[in-house]
Amino acid sequence: MTEQLSGLTELSVRRPQRADARRNFDALLSAAREVFAEEGADASLEDIARRAGVGIGTLYRNFPTRQDLFERVYIGEVEDLCTAARDLAELPPWEALVAWLRRFVTYIATKRALMEALSTGSPVFAVCRSTMYQAGTPLFERAQAAGEVRADLTFDDLVKMASGLTSGTFADDAQRTRVFSIALDGIRAAR
Question: Which pTM was predicted?
């Protein structure tokens, strides 16, 4: 897992060393996550800087281009998803996989604008996708080996299904939860 995350870190903008600069960097990333989730990829960089409590110059010192900010936010989300996979590995196989899938669906739903902004041809997107697959596949394989997941399913099938669930609009959270439960029933091995 550490090797996977180091591959992501090499792609991203480096976090500053000074404590005050690190605080500003982290505040910018947090604000960017929120603003991009609320307003999409065209969100105002000035709004991000304002929400972070810094000037626009500080934003540009850390992220010279909008693309740099997109990439770092996206990489941070993938790092969180990989960390979740590692943290869930001690749970029983089915529980671990379902918990990770719930995290993955949330990640996809809130990051669709960033993924579109990065495009599938981006080297960052390719490395992030590969890293995310490396993190989630062991959870999937363990659940499949335990007889919890259908034998004819691949991890790629599972990711495509979960991604598809996020592309639809739902009347409310209860409907989204119901549809997710139906999908989980579909991947479960026959008992």
Answer: 0.79
